[in-house]
């Protein structure tokens, strides 16, 4: 692969949205520095998916950072709290769910900002979505805009004027089915991805958590079969 002069840090969880975001950034001509986190999440199997995606996409580098957010807790993903199952879309959109990890995107973006400054990248990509998502406050466009403004005040590169940081949110107004259709158009192999919040010990998706239900609905609405394994 011919290297460009454009570099981007892409937050890569291993799910549908981050895999599609990576493909969009690569299609725009960026050399990709993929960033993932082992943060004490119960679905740590997602990191295996992130590694598969990074390898298949021939990224420049894939960095996995360890942060133990279990010490803070407060989420069904990092504490001994049950993951909600079999909820309707209406129920999902009613309140901020217990699967929200306090300040997670702020924490992740801070690491992405630091790495972008070190590698000389002006661009960060994150696959947040304001439509087919579970109402997380750190997935809103106004949050990203505020963070981008702060980021350009918080770095040596930004203050000295040599590096103007842009945070890209290409999926922000797309439905899950539109995201999947875009990914297929770009050649994303969704069999490499993982979305389940409460997978089995062998990594099979539960098919009942909010993330699984939104994923299944997205593939159904896109008219495409979901290629990952589900329990039962």
Describe the protein in words.
The chain contains 8 helices and 5 strands. It has a 5-stranded parallel sheet with strand order 3-2-1-4-5, sandwiched between helices. It starts with 6 loop residues before the first strand and ends in a 10-residue tail after the last helix. α1 links the parallel β1 and β2 (31-38). The protein is α/β, with parallel strands linked by helices and 232 residues long. The model has no long low-confidence stretch (mean pLDDT 93). α1 (16-27) crosses α7 (176-185). It has helices at 16-27, 46-56, 89-92, 104-119, 141-154, 156-159, 176-185, 210-222, and strands at residues 7-11, 31-38, 61-66, 123-125, 166-168. The longest helix is centred in the middle third of the chain and has 16 residues, at 104-119. The protein has a single domain, classed as HUPs (Rossmann fold, 3-Layer(aba) Sandwich).
């Amino acid at each position: 692969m011919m290297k460009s002069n454009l570099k981007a840090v892409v937050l890569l969880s291993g799910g549908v949205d981050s895999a599609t975001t990576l493909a969009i950034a690569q299609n725009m001509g960026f050399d990709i520095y993929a960033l993932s986190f082992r943060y004490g999440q119960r679905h740590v199997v997602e990191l295996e998916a992130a590694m598969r995606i990074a390898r298949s996409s021939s990224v420049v580098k894939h960095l996995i950072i360890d942060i133990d957010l279990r010490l803070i807790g407060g989420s069904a993903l990092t504490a001994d709290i049950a993951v909600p199952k079999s909820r309707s879309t209406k129920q999902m959109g009613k309140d901020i769910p217990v699967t929200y990890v306090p300040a997670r995107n702020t924490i992740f973006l801070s690491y992405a900002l630091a790495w972008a400054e070190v590698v000389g990248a002006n661009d960060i990509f994150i696959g947040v979505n304001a439509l087919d998502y579970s109402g997380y406050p750190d997935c809103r466009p106004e949050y990203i805009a505020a963070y981008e403004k702060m980021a350009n005040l918080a770095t040596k590169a930004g203050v000295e004027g040599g590096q103007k940081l842009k945070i890209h949110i290409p999926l922000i107004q797309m439905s899950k089915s539109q995201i999947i259709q875009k990914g297929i158009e770009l050649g994303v192999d969704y069999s490499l991805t993982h979305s389940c919040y409460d997978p089995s010990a062998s990594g099979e998706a539960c098919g009942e958590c909010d993330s699984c239900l939104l994923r299944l609905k997205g593939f159904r609405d896109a008219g495409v079969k979901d290629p990952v394994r589900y329990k039962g």
